[in-house]
Amino acid sequence: MKDNHTTPQALVVDDDPSQRMLEAAALEKAGFHVAQAENGRVALEMLVDMRPRLILLDVDMPEIGGFEVCRKIRSRPEFKDTPIVMVTGHEDTKSIDKAYESGATDFISKPINWPLLGHRVRYIVRTSRISQGLRESEARNRAFIQAIPDAILVIDQQGRVVEQVGGASKEPFSLDDLPVLMASTWRRQVGYVLGSGQVQHSEFSRGEGQSRNFYEARMVPFTNDRALMIIRDISAQKRATAKVYRLAFYDTLTGLPNRQSFMARLSEAIGDAEQNGGRFSILYLDLDNFKRINDSLGHSLGDELLKTVSKRIENCVRADDFVARYGRSQSNLHLARLGGDEFTILLRDLAEPEDVDLIASRIIKAVSQPIVEGGREFVITPSIGIANYPDDGVDTDTLVKNADMAMYQAKESGKNAVRSFSGTMSVRSLEYLDLEHSLRRAIGSDELELHYQPKLGLGCGAITGFEALLRWTHPDRGPISPAKFVPIAEEAGLILDLGEWVLHAACRQIKAWESGPLSGLPVAVNLSGKQFSHSDVYRVVMRAVQEHSIEPSLLELELTESELMRDADGTIGTLTRLKKAGLAIAVDDFGTGYSSLSYLKKFPIDALKIDRSFVMELDDSGDNISICGAIIALAHSLNLRVIAEGVETTEQQHLLTFLQCDEMQGYYFARPSDAPTTARFVEDYLAKDRLPRVVDASTKDIA
Questions:
Q1: First CA to last CA across the chain, in angstroms?
Q2: N or C: which end of the chain has fewer CB within 10 A?
C-alpha cells in the first residue's frame, strides 16, 4: 500500500471482521485513511511498505498475539515513535502493564465507545506528534551542546556545581575541583547575576608551566536560584597572543627584548624618574668590526657568535653578585638587542653614579674573552657609550641618540672602550657622529643616488660613456659633499656597503638604458682601496653584473694609483680576474701618485685618467702642458686610452685635442646630473648633431 498524502493513514489490526469494520468506520469519520489487516502476520507484512500515523491493534488474535505484534513493530526504528493503541477486552492491571511493556502508546477497553473513539485517537496522534517534536528538539539541542567546545555547568547560589548539562566530549573540568577553583568568585557573581539578570565574565587558569591552560567563564541567569556557567578553553588564543607579543617585543635570534621593548621600558623609566626625581643610565654597546665577520665568514657563523655574546652580556648583568652590588633587583636591569650587533642596557637605581663605568668595564671584560666557534677562535670587542638621565637627555630619542654618539666616540678613540656622553663635545665631533649615523640609515634609502657625467671622444666628437658619481641628499641638511661623507664612510666601516650600493645602482641604470639611445655606453664607478682589502671584490662586482643581467664590458672600474699599490700583488690578481670577465679597468687621478711606467706594465688596465689638478692649469702653465703630453704619450705607448678630468674651458679642450688625448669629461661639456637629465642631454646632443671643435693632429694646429 502507498501512503495517502492528503489524509493521515491508520492501520486497523483485528481478526474479527465486524469489529475491524466498525473501527475503520470510526477512524475514517475522524479523518483517517484506513488500511485493515485480519491478523498480526498480515499487519507486519503490510508495514514493510506503509508508514501509518496510527496503529489500532487488537490484543487477542490467532497466530501472533497483539502483545507480540506490538513488540515486533516497536523493534523497527521507523516505528519507534508511531502511536500504537491496544484494543483489549481485559481490564485487569496486569494486561494494561503488559500492553505498555510491549510498547503500546495507550489502550482502549471493549466494548468501545464509538462516538468517542475518533476524538480519542486524534488526541493520541496529536500528543505523539508533539512528543516526537520535543524529542527531536532535545536531540538537536543535545547534539549542539555536545558539539561546542564549551563546558556548560549549572551553579547554585553558593557557587557550587550542581549539574553539568553539556560540553565537549573531552571535558576540561571535574565537578570536584571546579568549586574549589572558583568558589569565591562564583559565589559573588551568582548573587549579582540572579539579582540583576546581567551576564558576568571572568578568566582563570589551571596547571603550571607548559601544562597551564586558560579559560574564559560567562555566567548567565538560568532559573530563579540557578545560574548557567559557560566555560571556554582559550589556551590556544592566549598562546597565540603571547607568540605575537614575543615576536613584537623580543629578538628571535637571541631571545632578548628588542628595540620596541627597550624604548617602552625607557619611556617607563623616564616617567618614574620624573615623578620621583630619580636618575638612571643607559649603555649603548656595539661590537667592533663585526660586519667583517659576517662578510667574510657568513651570517650563520655571525649569528652563532651574536648568540654567544648576548648570553655573555646577559649572564654578566644578571649575575647574583652583579645585582647585589649594582642594583636593588633584576627588574632594574633591562638588556635588549636593538638589531645587528647593537645592544642596550637600562640601569636604574644604581647605588652610586660612578657604578655605571664599573659596569661597562665589567661587560667589556666579559665580552672580550675568546670565543671558539666553527673551529676558529674569535676575540670580539665592544665599544660602549653611556648617557645619563636627566643630564644627557629627558626623552627617549635624545638619550638613545646621545648614548649612540658616545659609543662612536669610543670607537674613534681606538675601540674596545667606554665613553660617556659629554655636552662639551665639539660641534665638529657631533656633526661627524650625526653624519655617520645618518649615513648608516641612508644606505639603501632614496637619500642616495648616482649622477652621471658624460665623457666625450675628442677625435670623433661622440659620447663614449659616463662616470657614475655618488650624491647624498640629507633630509635635513640637503646635499652633502662626497668629500665630506666618503671619508666618514671609510672610517666608520661603511665604505663596503656604500661601494656595493653604487655597483648595483650603476648596473641597474645600465640595464635601464639598454633599449634607448644610451645603449652600449659604458659606465665607470670608483672603487675604494678598502673594497680590495676587506672584501672579495670579484664576487661583489660579478654578483652585481649577473643580478642585473648586463654585459660586463659596459661596467668600468676606476682605482687611484695609491689604491693600486697598497697590495700590488693581490690587486693584480683580482684585476686580472675582472679583466678576463670582460670588465674595463682605469687608473683614476693619474699623476698624483707613483706615475711609474714599470708598475703600469704589471697591471691589466685599459685607461689612464689625468688628474684634474694638471688639466686646470693647462691654460697658464707650460709645465702642465708638458706633463699632460708626457702622460698621454706614456699611455699610448702602452696601448692605453687617456681621459682628461675637470675640463672647464675651450682652451683646455683645444690643448688636450692637440696633445691627442682620447677623451675628456668636465663642466665644459656636461655637468654630472641624475639619470633622467643625463638621458635628455644625450638625446638633445644627438638631435643637434653638434660636434665640438677638433684638432688636426697632422698639422699640430688648433682648428
A1: 123
A2: C
Whether the Cβ atoms of residue 593 and residue 561 lie closer than 8 Å to each other: yes
Cα–Cα dist 523/307, whole Å? 42
Alpha-carbon distance of 530 to 292, in angstroms, equals 12
Nearest to 603 by CA among 574, 627, 581: 574
Q: List, for residues 324-355, the tens digit of each pLDDT value.
A: 444 444 567 789 999 889 999 999 877 777 78
Separation CA 562–CA 576 (nearest Å): 18
Query: Which residues are within 8 A (CB) of 524 and not within 5 positions of it... i.e. 6 or more apart?
Result: 465, 466, 467, 468, 556, 557, 558, 584, 586
Of residues 307, 316, 311, the one with CA closest to residue 366? 316
What are the grid coordinates assigned to 289, written together?
A: 668590526
Residue 66 parent element (H or E): helix 66-74
Q: Which residue has the cell 626623552?
A: 395
User: Using one digit for the tens of pLDDT, what is the confidence trace for 563-618?
Assistant: 777 677 778 888 999 999 999 999 988 876 555 655 677 889 999 998 888 888 77
- Joined together, the cell numbers standing for residue 195 give 539579582
Q: At what angle do helices 537-547 and 568-580 cross, to 10 degrees?
A: 20
The span from the CA of 190 to the CA of 222, in Å, is 10
Rounded Cα distance, 42 and 37, in Å:
6
For residues 606 and 585, the answer to whether their CB atoms sit within 8 Å is: yes
Of 322, 333, 318, 358, nearest in space to 269 by CA: 333
CA neighbor of 219 nearest in space, from 196, 191, 200: 200
Say which DSSP state 668 is in. Answer: T
CA angle (310, 315, 318) in 5-degree steps? 120
The answer to whether 448 touches 471, Cβ cutoff 8 Å, is: yes
CA-nearest of 235, 337, 353 to 285 is 337
pTM of the model: 0.45
Predicted confidence (pLDDT) per residue in 121-145, tens digit: 888 888 888 888 888 887 787 777 6
CB 458 within 8 A of CB 693: no
Over residues 247-259, the pLDDT tens digits come to 888 998 998 999 9
Cell numbers 557573581 correspond to what residue? 189
